[in-house]
């Protein structure tokens, strides 16, 4: 199976990006990472990319007069990379409709809650505020809405009595670092079929790590 080209979009710390870099290095994902794209020149994710020898593309949101111009520049960079998959790993902007349409089925996002509950910012705070007893993370394909595309993988954690936003976020983040590489692996093994709202996962071969 030919190795897929994947690109990551991240705005900050980049711990999910690191989990993907590490999973590729361990041979768990049949992919090569062809670029990190960031809207934030100060993102720590840039250091991680440099250390791993991954090219960095900074499309600085603040350098463009209007959102449209930023989106056009971003779309150009994405097209030039011609990746099979673009992963939003802590990319803190909503992608414009043009990009979402153009890259339909090739955009993946990780969200720190069990969607459709608690979309948008501060998902862990929202979950605690609501008083749910379980929360978790969701990896999904991106559509035109906010955190609303077809779900690929979800995993849950119990919300403990003593949890605050920090402790709950840390436990969810540990799950994210497992679920995102797993979803990318399934994509790279051509095992994800989008069927309306559902994502069907085809069975693995005898050599799949989950067997
Ligand atoms: C993660 O919680 C992710 O789910 C959310 O933003 C956070 C990014 O963390 N979309 P990191 O930059 O990957 O460390």
The DSSP helix count reads: 6
CATH H-level homologous superfamily name:
Formyl transferase, N-terminal domain
**Whole-angstrom Rg:** 17 Å
Overall 3D shape: globular
What summary fits the major beta sheet? 7 strands, mixed
In oligomeric terms, what are we looking at? single chain
Indicate the CATH architecture.
3-Layer(aba) Sandwich
* pLDDT < 50 stretches: none
Structural class comes to alpha/beta
State the CATH class: Alpha Beta
What proportion strand? 15-25%
Q: What is the topology, as strand order, of the major beta sheet?
A: 3-2-1-4-5-6-7
Helix content: 25-40%
Please tag this protein with its features:
binds 5-O-phosphono-beta-D-ribofuranosylamine; alpha/beta; single chain; 211 residues; globular
Question: Can you walk me through this structure?
Answer:
- The chain is α/β, with parallel strands linked by helices and 211 residues long.
- The protein has a single domain, classed as Formyl transferase, N-terminal domain (Rossmann fold).
- It contains 6 helices and 9 strands.
- It has helices spanning 15-25, 45-52, 67-81, 97-102, 123-130, 165-188, and strands spanning 4-9, 31-38, 56-58, 85-88, 107-111, 134-141, 151-158, 192-195, 198-201.
- A 7-stranded mixed β-sheet has the order 3-2-1-4-5-6-7, sandwiched between helices. A two-stranded antiparallel sheet has the order 8-9.
- Helix 2 (45-52) links the parallel strand 2 (31-38) and strand 3.
- The longest helix has 24 residues, at 165-188.
- The chain starts with a strand and ends in a 10-residue tail after the last strand.
- The model has no long low-confidence stretch (mean pLDDT 96).
- The protein binds 5-O-phosphono-beta-D-ribofuranosylamine (GRF).
- 5-O-phosphono-beta-D-ribofuranosylamine binds at residues 10, 12-16, 89-90, 110-112, 173, 176.
């Amino acid at each position: 199976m030919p190795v897929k080209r994947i690109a990551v979009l991240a705005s900050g710390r980049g711990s999910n990006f690191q989990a993907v870099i590490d999973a590729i290095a361990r041979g768990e994902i049949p992919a090569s990472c062809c670029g990190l794209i960031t809207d934030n020149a100060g993102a720590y994710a840039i250091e991680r990319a440099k250390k791993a020898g991954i090219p960095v593309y900074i499309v600085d949101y603040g350098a463009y007069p209007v959102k449209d111009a930023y989106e056009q520049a971003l779309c150009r960079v994405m097209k030039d990379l011609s990746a099979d998959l673009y992963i939003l790993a802590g990319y803190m902007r909503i992608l414009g409709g043009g990009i979402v349409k153009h890259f339909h089925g090739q955009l993946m996002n990780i969200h720190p809650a069990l969607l459709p509950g608690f979309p948008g910012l501060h998902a862990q705070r929202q979950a605690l505020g609501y008083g749910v007893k379980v929360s978790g993370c969701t990896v999904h394909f991106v559509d035109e809405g906010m955190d609303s595309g077809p779900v690929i993988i979800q995993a849950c954690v119990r919300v403990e009595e003593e949890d605050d936003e920090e402790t709950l976020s840390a436990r969810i983040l540990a799950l994210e670092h497992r679920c995102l590489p797993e979803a990318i692996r399934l994509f790279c093994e051509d095992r994800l079929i989008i069927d309306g709202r559902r994502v069907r996962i085809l069975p693995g071969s005898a050599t799949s790590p989950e067997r």
